[in-house]
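2024-03-11 09:14:02 INFO worker-7 job=invfold-0412 stage=load source=structure_tokens
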């Protein structure tokens, strides 16, 4: 069943996961999009990094978060895009073998136009130890039911 703007309420919560981040995936993503040595050189990262080893790019973590968000929340939603994100934060490094999940809470639902509204969910990504590794507030445009 499609979720429209009218179906979303402030305080609604959703959870979805588990996504294992592999060493190979960290290296592949970083080589293409964020080739800094602490993302691409495991030996150097183990010896010199203040993080104590190889870590995923924050943009990789954001991408995994988006995948989890689409699979768990947005796939059946009447979403027509996003206006951006606010409060983007990388809180704890993601490491090879971390299993990530998301928790989503709707903070605002703003009627914007007759055909759409904006939903502002706080999205937090957690590792298997329960540490929040990433967070953001989305500005997601949902179609309104009457405009469908």
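2024-03-11 09:14:09 INFO worker-7 stage=emit residues=148
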């Amino acid at each position: 069943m499609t979720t429209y703007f009218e179906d979303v309420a402030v305080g609604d919560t959703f959870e979805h996961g588990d996504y294992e981040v592999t060493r190979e995936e960290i290296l592949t993503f970083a080589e293409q999009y964020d080739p800094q040595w602490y993302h691409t050189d495991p030996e150097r990262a183990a010896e010199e990094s203040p993080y104590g080893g190889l870590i995923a790019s924050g943009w990789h973590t954001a991408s995994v978060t988006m995948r989890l968000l689409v699979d768990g929340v947005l796939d059946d939603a009447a979403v027509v895009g996003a206006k951006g994100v606010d409060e983007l934060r990388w809180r704890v490094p993601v490491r090879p073998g971390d299993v990530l999940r998301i928790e989503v809470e709707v903070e605002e639902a703003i009627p914007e136009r007759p055909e759409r509204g904006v939903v502002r969910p706080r999205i937090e990504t957690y590792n298997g130890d329960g540490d929040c590794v990433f967070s953001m507030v989305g500005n997601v445009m949902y179609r309104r039911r009457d405009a469908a």
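2024-03-11 09:14:09 INFO worker-7 stage=report msg="The radius of gyration is 17 Å."
2024-03-11 09:14:10 INFO worker-7 job finished
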